[in-house]
Amino acid sequence: MAHESQYFALSLDSLRSLGSWAADCAERALSIYENYAASDRRPRAAIEGIRIFAGGGKRAAQLRTLALAAYAAARDAGDPAAAAAARAAGLAASSAYTHPLADVQQTKHIVGPAAYAALALELNEGGDHSIGDNEVIWAVEHVTSEVREILLQMPAREIGKTRLENIMYEIDANIRSRNMRHSA
After folding, report:
1. Long-range CB contact pairs, 172-177, < 8 A, 24+
2. pTM reported for the whole predicted model
3. Which distant-in-sequence residues (6+ apart) come within 8 Å of 179 by Cβ?
4. What's 142's DSSP letter?
5. Could you write out the DSSP letters of every residue in 45-90?
6. Are 132 and 119 in contact (CB under 8 A)?
7. Other CB atoms closer than 10 Å to residue 43's CB: what's the count?
8. CA distances from 146 to 13, 89, 154, 179 (A)
9. Which 3 state secondary structure label does DSSP give 116?
10. 158: alpha, beta or left, given left = phi > 0 and alpha = psi -120 to 50?
11. pLDDT value at residue 181
12. From first to last of its 184 residues, what are the pLDDT tens digits of the chain?
């Protein structure tokens, strides 16, 4: 018998909070892409687009276009760190379209921007896992209670086979276990 995913309430205000945090996370790795392809503004435009939405702008089709353009920039990049930074930007922009569906695949919209940013920073420093681990700590320390509440509506991620999957797991697990009483 297949498991049926459950839907839950998800407000635009919660998506705006998610978008703001996702942009903050992705922006921390953006310079890696921009140093690789200085004239390509697609990842930056995606982050700018999600910031407009997070600040009260409409969730328009243009935001999807910006996300897809950042994903294309990632595919075009010949450098793994630059590609991961562009994917972080694309996922940040697409966070506005997180579905209110209790499905583990939807958690990528939440933890993906932080995870790809951590991976980009790590790869940029020769694969030093401590760099990625420190970025995970930063992301978890800066998560809002609204973002945590969205994540708690979804199944937890499991430990994966790749470094990226394990970074996503660490972000997910640490956000879930975080006591939010004293956070922003």
Report:
1. 172/107, 172/110, 172/111, 174/136, 174/137, 174/140, 175/111, 175/140, 175/143, 175/147, 175/148, 175/151, 176/148, 176/151, 176/152
2. 0.94
3. none
4. H
5. HHHHHHHHHHTT----HHHHHHHHHHHHHHHH-SSHHHHHHHHHHH
6. yes
7. 32
8. 9, 20, 13, 13
9. helix
10. beta
11. 55
12. 445 669 999 999 999 999 999 999 999 999 999 999 999 999 999 999 999 999 999 999 999 999 999 999 999 999 999 999 999 999 999 999 999 999 999 999 999 999 999 999 999 999 999 999 999 999 999 999 999 999 999 999 999 999 999 999 999 999 999 876 544 4
Tokens 């951590």, located at residue: 118
Asked whether 95 and 46 are in contact (CB, 8 A), the reply is no
Domain ranges of the chain: 12-177
